[in-house]
TrEMBL record, chain A:
It is a multi-pass membrane protein. NCBIfam families: 2A0604s01, transloc_SecF. Gene3D superfamilies: Multidrug efflux transporter AcrB transmembrane domain. This is Protein-export membrane protein SecF. InterPro entries: SecD/SecF_arch_bac, SecD/SecF_bac, SecD/SecF_CS, SecD_SecF_C, SecD_SecF_C_bact, SecF_bac. Residues 313-370 are annotated as: Disordered. Residues 321-330 have a biased composition (Basic and acidic residues). It is found in: Cell membrane. Pfam families: Sec_GG, SecD_SecF_C. PANTHER family: PROTEIN TRANSLOCASE SUBUNIT SECF, PROTEIN-EXPORT MEMBRANE PROTEIN SEC. The keyword Transmembrane applies. Keywords: Cell membrane, Membrane, Protein transport, Translocation, Transmembrane, Transmembrane helix, Transport.
From TrEMBL, chain B:
Residues 170-183, 194-208 have a biased composition (Low complexity). Forms a complex with SecF. Part of the essential Sec protein translocation apparatus which comprises SecA, SecYEG and auxiliary proteins SecDF. Other proteins may also be involved. The gene is secD. Pfam families: SecD_1st, SecD_SecF_C, SecDF_P1_head. Residues 116-125 have a biased composition (Polar residues). It is found in: Cell membrane. Coiled coil: none annotated. The lineage of its organism: Bacteria, Bacillati, Actinomycetota, Actinomycetes, Kitasatosporales. GO terms for molecular function: protein-transporting ATPase activity. Its main location: membrane. InterPro entries: SecD, SecD/SecF_arch_bac, SecD_1st, SecD_SecF_C, SecD_SecF_C_bact, SecDF_P1_head. Part of the Sec protein translocase complex. Interacts with the SecYEG preprotein conducting channel. SecDF uses the proton motive force (PMF) to complete protein translocation after the ATP-dependent function of SecA. This is Protein translocase subunit SecD.
Length: 370, 587
């Protein structure tokens, strides 16, 4: 672990680091590929809506000693490929709801259930049920999402800047598309749980992006006052600086969900738990990934188009060229220039120029010794 | 360490971390105590986890409206029922249509079934109808100028008396104008007053009022017969009358009873409909002494209609200056109108409201009337849809995941993980107790998606500590000692935490306001956990960190503290400190 700690330190100082911005084209490519796959999956397989959305058939059996769990197996074998929900009522009868059945389809299922439970077919009562997650809920949810998106983009544009707002929005859409696409490919049924999972991801994806952007904003505060780094380089350093935090947060958030998905769902087979945890797992992973690999490089891309940043990049280039020339003429010098450079070059203001004095002064305003 | 003495601490003004910790401890004890006080030790579980009660409601055919039972009306009714029983979206009820004319309502275990039955079963067809005649509630043998009328005539008509009445009932009015002899209307407040009951009151000088003609003004003889036949004194009679009145067309005259059965009315066509009510809420009228009342705000259209009808009524003699608020065929309240009311709002008083019944009525009025009337066909318990195994699997998996999180945190943050774990524990206790207490308070119920959401919330809460810890460690890498690092890292970590939590909270707030049903419930949970995250970090993690920074174990950067400058790779020349002998090992 001490290694991790020192890697953290070196990441922080910019001694090591992955060139997220420089290799952004690769990651854009990968993301576009995944997104296209997701969209194709969505287009080809479509989403499999559960009974809560599409309605279905409900069968009431006569009073029986069969438990609801056994009833579940009966129902699943009677209507393969459809989601079944079985409840036992107070008077001992079973209420079996099976999604996506219409009147015609429900007849053979009714017979099958009756056969399995060894009751006469006519005693199994069949009716069609409407969705409990009605259109109104869905409409309002879309409306709410729309309003939220507008507000959050406005907020980010004010608190940060419009480029970051745009990048965060793209990252969010990216995450949601991938999650929905994976859902379509796996073919799990969409339940209210899935929708709640998607909404959770929406919150998390933005949250994670904002945390990364916050450090980027801080790092690029006084960017035009220095000539050591271009915006892209600062952004890259900022990502690397918060990389430890990103990894830790992702691990902490993903571990319990992975537990739900692989232990809970894996051991017990399909169920609502699986639906939710799959959506959450994919979404959380995508959210963490997109903040670093997509959102920040996008901001850098957009930023580099600004005339100010273009000028800065030119200055940095010029300075480097002259430094290189000097370097070459001086043949070699001792020491590792990178060790000190980051401290005064980057972003971060005042105190870091004189760490020694700071350390001694312990943050007390120097004049007020009392 | 420049200032090792204990007395001169807290340079940055972060005083009294101990007090903050004590505060949150007291809050926690209070919440746990509250849990025991109410006797609810576990959160209410949703129907998917705990089962509950299921109602089947059958739509009733109404005479005169043969095609009323159709898909549109059924869906509308289901939507309204859903909002009535699940206005906040947190009570995990399910409403769905079944077949052509049935609606199933599932409510989780522990919900007040009686209340729910009332909420879904009441049509809540509201109408404001002008009063044409009032009569005592019993059967009258012959259609006569009713006793009610006479009572009215006997009654004090003087302006003073009215004014006094107004002042007694509406002490709320800020400046009571003294009774003016000319305009009755001005002497009273502009609010509606409950009409005096029909029994004669002795006060006041009788003013010659236009004598009511023996035949009811505007009321046909058919309706007079109906009125005579009406018996409000028995329950059956009232039920029958209610049914008839409820089924009548809005444009018809009706006869109706009041809820107590003491009076009966002939009422004109509906002047303002329930649809015109925009919003309604229950309030306690402590000053006017009317107990619980329901306040309604009209839509702009409804406000106009209301101003219209009150303007007309105010000019009429008694009892025709009264109007009746009719709910599902029964008169809840019959306020007298003294002047045109333009405020766009009205109150329903009387009707013997309790807190519960006034809140229920307000709730129903806000969400509108059912387009159909229903009767409850069947009421039965249902078992959990997911069964115990899913919940157990979920809990087990969650526990395993949490165990891994603990291991990871300990391995990575070492001593600091104590802070993280303590914070997570505090967060868990707060979440659990608040969710448990919200069960009885607002009907909050936890379903499986919410449990999963809570598990994700762990990650978001943990992120706040991680952001803060990484800040502290960055400061140490800069060469600071722990205490300044703790204080200097905080403002920056705090900003990150607030900015990112604000985004989450924004999502929660918008979704909560705009959406309905389960999405609203989700938004509630998200908002709650986000707020708790901020509370825990500000009131627990930060003060705890400040306190621990004073401990030698942490301040000296013990290898197991997770804050060892050497491990963190602090810059070599700065690492040496007088009080940190462990650091010199390397040299």
């Amino acid at each position: 672990m001490s290694k991790l700690g020192s890697i953290g330190a070196r990441l922080y100082r910019g001694e090591v680091g992955y060139d997220f911005i420089g290799k952004r084209k690769i990651w854009y490519g990968i993301s576009i590929l995944i997104t296209i796959t997701a969209l194709v999956g969505l287009a080809v397989r479509g989403l499999n809506f559960g009974i809560e959305f599409s309605g279905g058939a409900v069968f009431s059996t006569p009073a029986t000693s069969v438990s609801s769990a056994q009833g579940q197996h009966t129902a699943e074998s009677a209507a393969p490929g459809h989601q079944a929900m079985v409840q036992k009522l107070g008077n001992g009868t079973l209420r079996i709801q099976i999604s996506g059945l219409d009147t015609k389809q429900s007849l053979p299922v009714q017979e099958e259930i009756a056969k399995d439970l060894k009751v006469p077919v006519k005693d199994v009562n069949t009716q069609l049920v409407g969705p409990s997650w009605g259109e109104q809920i869905a409409d309002k949810a879309w409306l709410g999402l729309g309003i939220f998106m507008v507000l959050v983009v406005l907020y980010l544009a004010v608190a940060f800047e419009w480029r970051m707002a745009l990048a965060a929005l793209i990252a969010l859409i990216h995450d949601l598309t991938i999650t929905v696409g994976v859902y379509a490919l796996v073919g799990f049924e969409v339940t209210p749980g899935t929708v709640i999972g998607l909404l959770t991801i929406l919150g998390y994806s933005l949250y994670d992006t904002v945390v990364v952007f916050d450090s980027l904003k801080e790092a690029s505060k006084d960017i035009t006052k220095q000539t050591r780094f271009t915006y892209s380089e600062i952004a890259n350093r900022s990502i690397n600086g918060t990389l430890v935090r990103s990894i830790n947060t992702t691990v902490v958030a993903l571990l319990p969900v992975a537990g739900l998905l692989f232990v809970g769902g894996g051991v017990l087979g399909a169920g609502m738990l699986n639906d939710i945890s799959l959506a959450l797992f994919v979404g959380l992973a995508a959210g963490a990934y997109s903040s670093i690999f997509i959102a920040t490089p996008l901001v850098a891309d957009l930023k580099e188009r600004e005339p100010q940043m273009k000028a800065l990049a030119k200055r940095v280039k010029a300075k480097r060229a002259s430094a290189e020339a000097k370097e070459a003429s001086r043949a070699e010098t001792s020491g590792d220039p990178q060790d000190d450079d980051p401290e005064d070059g980057a972003s971060v203001v005042g105190p870091r120029h004189q760490p020694i004095a700071r350390g001694r002064g312990r943050g007390r305003p120097s004049g007020k010794r009392r | 360490m420049a200032a090792p003495k204990k007395g001169r601490r807290t340079p940055a003004g972060h005083g009294h971390p101990g007090r903050t910790l004590a505060l949150i401890l007291i809050v926690m004890i209070g919440l746990v105590g509250g849990m025991f006080w109410y006797g609810h030790l576990t959160p209410r579980l949703g129907i998917d986890l705990a089962g509950g009660t299921s109602f089947t409601l059958a739509a009733q055919n109404q005479p005169g409206k043969p095609n009323a039972i159709n898909e549109t009306n059924m869906n509308t009714a289901a939507g309204i029922m859903e909002r009535r029983v699940n206005g906040l979206g947190v009570s995990e009820t399910e409403v769905q249509t079944q077949g052509n004319d049935h609606i199933i309502v599932n409510i989780p275990k522990g919900t007040d079934a009686k209340q729910a039955r009332q909420q879904v079963g009441t049509t809540a067809q509201l109408g404001f109808r002008p009063v044409l005649t009032i009569a005592p509630g019993t059967k009258t043998p012959t259609p006569n100028p009713s006793k009610g009328q006479q009572g009215k005539n006997d009654q004090g008509k003087g302006d003073k008396a009215t004014g006094k009445q107004g002042s007694q009932q509406k002490a709320t009015s800020p400046s009571k104008p003294s009774a003016s002899p000319t305009t009755q209307g001005r002497a009273v407040t502009d609010a509606l007053k409950k009409a005096p009951s029909a029994k004669p009151t002795p006060s006041g000088s009788a003013k010659p009022s236009p004598k009511p003609s023996p035949t009811l003004p505007g009321a046909g003889s058919g309706i007079a017969k109906q009125l005579a036949a009406l018996d409000c004194s028995t329950k059956q009679g009232r039920a029958l009358a209610g049914q008839q009145a409820a089924n009548a067309k809005p444009s018809d005259q009706i006869v109706a009873c009041n809820q107590e059965g003491t009076q009966k009315y002939v009422l004109g066509p509906v002047a303002v409909e329930g649809m015109d009510v925009k919003d309604a809420k229950a309030a306690f009228d402590s000053q006017g002494g009317q107990g619980w009342i329901v306040q309604m705000d009209f839509t702009s259209d409804g406000g106009k209609k209301f101003a219209d009808i009150t303007g007309k009524l105010a000019a009429k003699p008694r009892p025709q200056n009264q109007f009746a608020i009719v709910l599902d065929g029964a008169v809840v309240s019959d306020p007298r109108v003294d002047q045109q009311l333009n405020g766009g709002s009205a109150t329903i008083s009387g009707g013997g409201f309790t807190q519960q019944s006034s809140e229920d009525l307000a709730n129903m009025l806000s969400y509108g009337a059912l387009p159909l009337s229903f009767h409850i066909d069947d009421e039965t318990t249902v078992t959990a849809a997911l069964g115990g195994e899913q919940l157990h699997a979920g809990l087990l998996a969650g526990a395993i995941g949490l165990g891994l999180v603990v291991l990871y945190l300990v391995a990575y943050y070492r001593g600091l993980s104590l802070v993280a774990l303590a914070s997570l524990t505090v967060s868990a206790i707060l979440t659990y107790t608040i969710m448990t207490l919200l069960g009885p308070a607002i009907g909050f119920a936890l379903n499986l998606p919410a449990v999963c959401g809570a598990i994700v919330a762990i990650g978001i809460t943990a992120d706040s500590f991680i952001v803060y810890f990484e800040r502290i460690r960055d400061e140490i890498r800069e060469g600071r000692t722990l205490r300044p690092a703790v204080e200097r890292g905080w403002p920056r970590a705090r900003r990150t935490i607030l900015v990112s939590d604000f985004v989450s909270f924004l999502a929660a707030a918008v979704l909560f306001i705009v959406t309905v049903g389960k999405v609203k419930g989700f938004a509630f949970t998200l908002g709650l956990t986000t707020l708790l995250d901020v509370v825990v970090v500000f009131l627990f993690t930060k003060p705890l960190m400040t306190l621990l920074a004073r401990r030698k174990f942490f301040a000296d950067g013990h290898p197991w503290s997770g804050l060892d400058p050497k491990r963190l790779g602090a810059k070599p020349p700065l690492r040496r400190r007088r009080t940190a002998p462990t650091q010199t090992k390397e040299a």
